[in-house]
């Protein structure tokens, strides 16, 4: 039986994994390919807003992560089209917190 050699990770993947590793309970191995597969900057922002904005981490900032991920991805030459609004992440975070507060009361 021939086993294929492990694929070498690029710098963006390594950076993304290291950033997401601080988030408790996050399946990094599942999240990274989804982020890498986004075709527009707005998809990245929406994905982060929907999946990472309510994370339990003292060191992870979803808005900053999305901005830097987009910049790093563009710098690698991997195309991301369109403009984006990272303010969406703050909006989703506030809505989630408000919803959770309402459920508690």
What does the main sheet amount to? Answer: none
Overall mean pLDDT stands at: 78
Number of helices: 5
Helix proportion of residues, in percent?
55-70%
> What sequence of helices (H) and strands (E) makes up the elements?
HHHHH
What percent strand? under 5%
As residue ranges, the low-confidence spans are: none
Q: What is the terminal-to-terminal distance?
A: 59 Å
Question: How many beta-strand runs?
Answer: 0
Compute the CA-based radius of gyration: 16 Å
Shape, please? Answer: globular
**Structural class of the helix and strand makeup?**
mainly alpha
How many separate domains?
Answer: 1
What are the main properties of this structure?
mainly alpha, globular, 0% strand
How is the topology of this model organized?
Elements: H1 11-20, H2 28-36, H3 41-51, H4 62-75, H5 87-104
Helix pairs in contact: 1-2, 3-4, 3-5
